[in-house]
Please model this.
Amino acid sequence: MTRAVIGLSTYGRNDQGHFHLPSEYVDAVRRAGASPVLLPPGEPNFDAWLKSVDGLIFAGGGDIDRVAYGGREHSTFYLVDAERDSTELALARRVVELGVPTLAICRGAQVINVAMGGTLHEHLPDVVGELVTHRAPPREPIMHTVTLESGSRLCEILGSKEFEAVSWHHQAIDKAAPELTVVGHAPDGTIEAVETRDHPWLVAVQWHPELTAGDDPVQQRLFDALAKAALVPHAG
Model:
């Protein structure tokens, strides 16, 4: 049986100079019957990467530099990484151009949106208040409800219009890029998912499906669907 190869963007260099990625991403890809390959920031040759993988996951992590989307300075910004931003924003534009099957998670959803011309809320509580907690203090994950649009690709994939998901962010999409369609929201109106039918398979979610996919089949279906889509020939 053919196994798809899924590339996963990693976090930037830490204080020890190490690249890393939480193991839950790798586990979810393997449960989907695919083989994971880690893609660290700084790679100048995207075409070599894209010849080696069948699909991509843009992982979560720190904030994107506000300059990339014309944002304002905010005291809550953290883990801003110029090398990671440069690599992922350029890679995102390339996978959109080539039609590479792509799942973008949390920061990854923001990367896709910014790369395609959208903007972000610098600090979500300033916009939507505290009706829904999107990140527990000081910086911890928390559950909240997500509601999807009926008939969206994402709703079809997950087989559920409403579910509980792990939230772990203080930023989110403000204005969606013109090519993206908003298909999911939190109860406070925060954009939780975008997609585009102009791409063979591109789904971006603000929550963290990898954290519960081992026990929650609804969330694992995202990775299963990516692995399946990655086996369909595409221009990349």
In short: The domain at 5-230 is CATH 3.40.50.880 (Rossmann fold). The chain has one domain: 5-230. The mean pLDDT is 96.
